[in-house]
Design goal:
Length: about 210
């Protein structure tokens, strides 16, 4: 219910106004032809933005649907807030059973912070990624010699990367994940090679970014 005021409420501060203007500009570029030139132009502008790119890209479809409404800018963050609540229930059920799951969902849904996750900053996407990471960590052994564990490790890295592309402060979760790996896996040349191999695509991306 706390999302109802957000659906018709005014923009919060300069950040949402600036993000709305940028999204309108990107949508206008996408109407140009050839499309590749438009994408390159958008990429250049995104590289100059103070904020990371994913929050803009998440808001663009909503702005395209409702270009003159605050709801358009917040539409997909609000949808991710609902998903965030569902993931809280699922994680709670896995950790403590049905009662814990429903209590977790209720506490999240009635919390005042819920309003902030539904704003255009896409914090709900970050929370969804953290919930997914927690669910993946439950069965993680960090034995990267196993293909299944390597895939799980890379999915964990992907969750952190998505959070990072929404808010760059979450880059700190990468060294945290590596430290957890080193705790689970005794130091050895083989373990280090597996870690480098598993993390290499994400390291390259972060270096280019």
């Amino acid at each position: 219910w706390s999302n109802l005021p957000l659906m018709r409420g005014q923009f919060q501060g300069d950040d949402e106004v600036g993000q709305w203007a940028s999204c309108l500009q990107y949508i206008e570029f996408l109407s140009e032809w050839p499309i590749l030139r438009a994408i390159i132009k958008i990429g250049k502008i995104l590289s100059l933005e103070f904020h990371p790119p994913l929050r803009f890209l998440i808001s663009c479809p909503g702005v395209a649907l409702l270009p003159r409404s605050e709801l358009g800018l917040r539409l997909f963050p609000i949808l991710f807030s609902f998903l965030m609540t569902l993931l809280a229930i699922l994680l709670g059920k896995k950790l403590g059973g049905r009662q814990v799951g429903w209590a977790s969902g209720f506490l999240i849904a009635t919390s005042s912070i819920y309003n902030w996750t539904s704003l255009a900053f896409s914090w709900s996407v970050i929370v969804c990624c953290l919930y997914l990471a927690a669910i993946l960590l439950q069965k993680c052994t960090f034995n990267l010699a196993s293909r299944a564990e390597l895939i799980r490790f890379r999915l964990l890295c992907l969750c952190i990367l998505i959070a990072f592309l929404t808010n760059t402060g979450f880059v700190l979760l990468f060294p945290s994940l590596i430290l957890v790996y080193l705790i689970y896996q005794p130091p050895s040349l083989q373990a280090t090679k597996r870690l480098v191999s598993g993390f290499a695509p994400f390291f390259i991306f972060l270096s280019v970014y």
